[in-house]
Specification:
Blueprint lengths: L13 H20 L10 H98 L3 E5 L10 H13 L10 E6 L14 E5 L2 H13 L2 E3 L2 E7 L3 H8 L2 H9 L3 E5 L3 E5 L8 E3 L2 H18 L1
Antiparallel strand pairs: 1-3, 1-5, 2-3, 4-5, 6-7, 7-8
Length: 306
Amino acid sequence: MSRQRNPPGKSKTIDGYISSANASGANASDSRSSEPSVKPTATTSDITSIDKTHMYEICKEMCKEMSETILGRLDERFDAFDTKFQSVLSVQTDLQNRMVSQEQTTSALEERVEVLEAKCEDLTKYASQLQTKLLDLEARSRRHNIKIVGIKEDSEEGKPTDFVSKLIPELLGKQHFPHPVKVDRAHRSLQPKSTAGGKPRTIMARIHHFQVKEQILRLSRTQSMEYKGNKILIFPDYTNEVMSQRRAFRDVMKALRDGGVKHHLRYPARLHVYWDEEENIPEVFNDPAAAEAARSLKERSASADG
């Protein structure tokens, strides 16, 4: 916006305007005094009226120029403010657009996450089922196996299957096994061979008939076994998971055995307790804590009755 500029040589201050007015009045007086004396002189009221009119015009001009100056400066500042405001408004619009875009992206991601969580939950259940089946298959593949501990290294002379087949009747009695036991395969555990005088590795053997394997385990629990002066132990071949589950019942089984209570630990880890041997109906426990709680309760009841 263009504004009128002050005439050159004229000050924009009030003092400047007053000085200019005084100078104009003096010039007017000089011009009047230089006029011929024939004309009549102006009265005091006429001079006062002329001075007031002149001062009014000067004040009017001064106010006009001051207003134009103030408005010009306000226009400049408003133009700068409008520029900055438009810049801020542009940034705000950009941020708003970005926020809308982010909200849309977040909403889409939340939907995808919900779908993925559902799939992950299904896959977790499926993996758990597969793991259970895998453990069951591994355990079933070992159901015919036995572990023989205490046989010195190289006693089998390179023929572990034949050696175990003849060893079983020798350890448990030929009256139970009049013929060599049918063994599918046998080998030492896959550990490094021990040095001379060290602990021998365990012999793993797969018995062809499951009933024969059960008979071997049952007889091994009721009698001591030796081979060439070394104590021999025979155990079932369980997986690590089954061994951990069965090991958890060790304390409660010891307490039951000390109390003279008949019990059996069935595969994989189910404790059958016969509180009343006459009824011969066992109470089955899958949790060692529950079995211990029941044993404690029975013991307290018996103490109270006694």
